[in-house]
Design goal:
This protein is α/β, with parallel strands linked by helices. It has helices at residues 9-22, 34-43, 87-94, 137-144, 161-166, 201-211, 253-268, 284-299, 318-329, 332-345, 350-374, 398-402, 409-414, 442-454, and strands at 29-32, 56-60, 98-103, 150-154, 170-173, 194-198, 240-244, 272-276, 377-381, 418-426, 429-436. Bound molecules: glutamine.
């Protein structure tokens, strides 16, 4: 419509903001960037050579944006306005995107249901009072509801792919190092990676190409040329897809059926299916839940009531300031992770937990290297189930929720790229499958997902939104 002059950039921006307000009960945004977005859209003219020109976008509320409140959905960052903008946001703005809002998320990206947010639950646009997934739950809900066509997320153990699956979207976690982490508030630095959530693999390719680029401000940023996944998107080679033996029998009958339908679609498109083995994959959840909390306990030590956001009142002395600000500022899940992380890093337990987890992490990465000698990409479900009701998982036993990450975590441990693709609905609710590839195989992953989407229509379905009016 922009290209045909059927809508102006400012009309599109205003429409997106008015949808954000109309669906306020979804609770997918922490802040709407109304004034700045409208001002920006009036100054921008549409550039037909640029696919992201004047496209409204929402950013997960852990990407710093200069002078715009950035909280990670935590009380401890309430009121914090960063003095600088994250590289990812800058890259997307340089490509023409207009930032409409910051999205709600699990506090500091710790969770799989968006229920740990200080700002309350986000609803799944497909079913009220059900989770959108997490931690990029607001991002997924903002795209699934049609408010924005594209959102950024981050994925430390599945936080882009799982909400994408639960909201019928396509979500890509790129290779570790592909996208700059500068200005992205850290959870677990060796695992965190930003990526796009959109309707299709094609939209993810467009966004990925704009998000990437070497950044000297992130020491883990890879020295790569420009990413050009869009140029090669239509190239379909009949790849071999590996099915993980160890994942057999992990799904309910209905979820298994949906996954088998995806396998059959790929077979009918000429892909070969081959069983492969990842012998150490069963250790990926426990390994992650040692390493991620360890890194989080270190990263989150900077939030002490002195430098950022929230500071407790009634302070007697410096120790009191730290203890009270952190005790009152962090939510329960974040505290649990800090405690676990501090424990596994402490002198007497370091070797038994942290060092052991690092060793197992290496074994898991090596399993992938061996598997990719047998197949080009690995095909798995994205999550064990569909969306679930608020407060139904993890309230008594947090590990129940940690198992949501069964299929997604290993790719983060190995630093390799993976995508979630909408597949057959299960009891009228979205589900997804995942394609995992070797380092820097984003082109092959996106080509394969795109090929699937040219031959299926699940990704075209959208929720009615009536219950949110
Ligand atoms: N669900 C996982 C966790 O709670 C992953 C979160 C993420 O990828 N940010 O840590």
């Amino acid at each position: 419509m922009l290209a045909n002059k059927e809508i102006t950039p400012s009309e599109l921006t205003e429409e997106s903001i008015s949808l954000a307000k109309r669906y306020a009960s979804l609770n997918c945004f922490n802040v709407i960037n109304e004034e700045a977005a409208i001002a920006q859209s009036r100054n921008l003219s549409f550039d037909s050579n640029n696919l992201l020109s004047c496209i409204p976008i929402a950013h997960k509320d852990l990407f710093c944006i200069k002078d715009l409140e950035t909280t990670c959905s935590s009380k401890i960052l309430e009121g914090y306005k960063p003095p600088y903008t994250a590289t990812v946001v800058k890259n997307l703005e340089n490509a023409g995107c207009i930032t409409i809002a910051k999205t709600n998320m699990d506090e500091f990206a710790m969770g799989s249901s968006n229920e740990t947010s200080y700002f309350g639950n986000v609803h799944n646009p497909w079913l009220k009072n059900h989770v959108p997934g997490g931690s990029s739950g607001g991002a997924a809900a903002s795209v699934a509801s049609g408010i924005v066509p594209l959102a950024t997320g981050t994925d430390t153990g599945g936080s882009i792919r799982q909400p994408a699956a639960l909201c019928n979207l396509t979500g890509l976690k790129p290779t570790y190092g592909r996208i700059s982490r500068w200005g992205m508030i850290a959870f677990a630095s060796s695992l965190d990676q930003a990526g796009p959530i959109a309707h299709t693999a094609k939209d993810c390719a467009i966004a990925l190409d704009a998000m990437t680029g070497h950044d000297s401000k992130d020491s883990t940023s890879l020295h790569l040329g420009k990413t050009t996944t869009l140029e090669t998107l239509e190239k379909h080679t009949s790849l071999t897809l590996g099915i993980v033996k160890e994942f057999n029998g992990q799904l309910s009958a209905e979820m298994e059926l949906a996954f088998q339908k995806s396998i059959m679609t790929y077979q009918s498109l000429g892909y070969k299916i081959k069983e492969i083995t990842l012998p150490n994959i069963k250790y990926s959840v426990p390994t992650y839940y040692v390493i991620a909390p360890a890194e989080c306990s270190s990263n989150l030590s900077r939030f002490d009531g002195v430098r950022f956001g929230f500071r407790s009142k009634n302070i007697q002395n410096l120790e009191d300031l730290y203890v009270k600000s952190r005790s009152e500022g962090f939510g329960n899940e974040v505290k649990r992770r800090i405690l676990i992380g501090t424990y596994v890093l402490s002198a007497g337990y370091y070797d038994a937990y942290y060092k052991k987890a690092q060793q197992v992490r290496r074994l898991i990465a090596e399993d992938f290297n061996s598997a990719f000698k047998e197949c080009d990409l690995i095909l798995t479900p994205t999550s064990p189930g569909t969306t679930f009701a608020f407060d139904s998982k993890g309230s008594k036993d947090p590990t129940e929720l940690y198992l949501e990450d069964l299929f997604t975590i290993a790719a983060n441990l190995a630093g390799i790229p993976a995508i979630s693709v909408p597949q057959a609905f299960v009891n009228n609710l979205p589900s997804g499958h995942q394609l995992i590839g070797p380092h820097l195989s984003e082109s092959a992953i996106l080509q394969t997902a795109h090929h699937f989407q040219l031959n299926s229509d699940w990704h075209l379905k959208s929720p009615s939104m009536e219950s949110f009016l």
